[in-house]
Amino acid sequence: MKKLLSFLLLALMVLGASTAFAGGNKIVIAHRGASGYLPEHTLEAKAAAYFMGADYLEQDLVMTKDDQLVVLHDHYLDRITDVMDKFPNRFRMVDGEKRWFAIDFTLAEIKTLNVTEGFTVKDGKKVQGFGARFPMFTSSFEVPTFEEELQLIQGLNKSTGKNVGIYPEIKAPWFHRAEGKDISLAALNMLKKYGYTTKGDKVYLQCFDPNETRRISKELLPKLGMNIKVVQLIAETSWNETMEKKNGKFVPYNYDWMFKKGAMQRIAEYADGIGPWKPMLVKDESTRNHLVITDMVKEAHANGIEVHPYTFRLDNGRIPAYAASFEDMLDIFYYTVDVDGVFTDYADRAVNFLRRAEYQRQGL
Ligand code: G3P
Ligand code: CA
User: Fold this and answer.
1) What is the pLDDT of residue 24?
2) CB 73 within 8 A of CB 45
3) Cβ 284 vs Cβ 332: under 8 Å
4) 186-237: per-residue pLDDT in tens?
5) Cβ atoms of residues 42 and 115 within 8 Å
6) What is the pTM of this model?
7) Which residues share a beta bridge with 101?
8) How far does the centroid of ligand 1 lie from the alpha carbon of residue 229, in Å?
9) 179-208 in b/e burial notation, b at 16+ Cβ within 10 A?
10) Active site (annotated) includes residue 31
11) What is the percent of the chain with per-residue pLDDT over 70, rounded to a whole number?
12) Tell me, what's the pLDDT at 1?
C-alpha cells in the first residue's frame, strides 16, 4: 500500500500536479511566471511556471493608450523592452529620468517591441539586473495582453485537466485614473468574461492601493454581480508605490496603520488576504538562532484572512542572512511563520520543497 501511494504521488509529480494537494493547503504563486528562468511576464514564462506545478500564475496589469490591458510589471516599458531604441522620442521626463510609459503607446505599437530580461542603463550601456538569468535580448518575446494570457492558462487547464489559478494585480490605479482610465473596472470586466466571478473560482485579485482595494471589494464587485477573492498588498510608504491626491498634489499613501494592532481586522473588512513584503513578517535583524517574527500572520489568521508574502528569490544576495538556503527560507516562512503561500520567481523549487515536506508529513 505504501509503495502504491508512493507510486501515485510520483505519477502526480511527473504530471505536474497541483501543490495544493501535494503541499497540503499551502500554495505556490509564480511571480511574473517562471521569471527566474525566462523574461518576466512573457507567455513562455507563464507556460514554464504552469508545468513546474505552480498553483497560481501572477499577472501585473497596466493599460495602453487604446485601453487594452497588458501584462507588465511597470507602467513604463523601458526596463524590459527595446522601446528606447524603437521609439527614441516617445518618453516623458520623471524626476530627471526618461521613461517610456505604456499608456502613451497603442497595443499595436507595444506588440512591435522585443521583451528581454530586466536591465538598467549605466553610462549609456544596458546592464542586466539579474546577471545569471536568461541572457538579455536573445530569442524573441513579446508583451502579452491579459486576454491572451487568460486564454493560455484556460487552454492549458483544458488540455491538462488541471485547474491552475490566476493572481492579477491592478498596478497604479491612481496613475491610470489621473490619465482618465478605470483600470480596475476594465480588469474586472475581463475576469467576468472569462468566468472568474465567485470566491470558488481560482483567482485572487491584488492591489497595493488600499482605497482601490476597498473600492473593488465594496463597490465594483457587487455592481458587477461578482464576489472573487481580494488581496491587500502592503508596501513601505517610502517606496512611493501608491500615491494619493491631497490639496491637488500627489503624495505617498501612508501605510503606517497597517503595522499597528487592529490593522488586520480593518483589512479583513474588505479583503480575503494580505500580500506583505518578507521583512514585514521576519525582521532582517533575525539570526538563524533567533528569528524576529512579527504578529502580522497571527493577527491575519485570527481575522480569517490569508497571508502570501513576496518575493522569494535565490539570486545572489536575495536570501536573508538568517536562512541557510532558499529551501531553509521557505521552511521558515511556510512552517515557522505559517504563511499560506509565497510569491516566488522559482516556482519549481517551492513546488518541490512543499511536495517533499508533505511526503515527510505523511511518513512516505
Ligand atoms: O504582487 C505581489 C508582488 O508581486 C509585489 O511585488 O512589485 O513584484 O508587483 P511586485
Ligand atoms: Ca505583483
Assistant:
1) 64
2) no
3) no
4) 999 999 999 999 999 999 999 999 999 999 999 999 999 999 999 999 999 9
5) yes
6) 0.94
7) 76
8) 17
9) eebebbbbbbebbeebebbeeebbbbbbbb
10) yes
11) 93
12) 37
Do residues 34 and 45 make contact, with C-beta atoms less than 8 angstroms apart?
A: yes
Contact yes or no for 156/50 (Cβ under 8 A)? yes
**Residue 9 scores a pLDDT above 70:** no
Question: 182, 186, 187: which is closest to 166 by C-alpha?
Answer: 187
Tell the residue nearest (CA) to atom 5 of ligand 1: 310
Q: What angle do CA 254, 258, 263 make, to 5 degrees?
A: 140
Amino acid identity of residue 202, one-letter, is K
Joined together, the cell numbers standing for residue 303 give 481575522
Taking the centre of ligand 2 as the mean of its atom positions, its distance from the CA of residue 61, in whole angstroms, is: 9
- Alpha-carbon distance 268 to 274, whole Å? 9
Task: Assign residue 161 a region (left: φ > 0; alpha: ψ between -120 and 50; beta: otherwise).
Answer: left
- Is residue 169 within 6 Å of ligand 1 at its C-beta? yes
- d(CA 120, CA 37) in angstroms, rounded, equals 19
Ligand 1 closest atom vs CA 241: 7
* 290 classed as catalytic: no
Say if ligand 1 is within 6 A of residue 104 CB.
Answer: no
- Please state, in angstroms and rounded to a whole number, the distance separating the CA atoms of residues 42 and 116: 9
Ligand 1 pocket check: which of 343, 344, 345 to mutate, most ligand atoms within 8 Å of Cβ?
A: 343
304: left (phi over 0), alpha (psi -120 to 50) or beta: left
| Least confident piece of the model among 16-25, 139-148, 187-196 | 16-25
**Ligand 1 within 6 A of CB of 233:** yes
Closest CA to 357 of 297, 15, 342, 291: 342
Strand partners for 293? 282
Torsion sign (Cα): 87, 181, 29, 265: positive
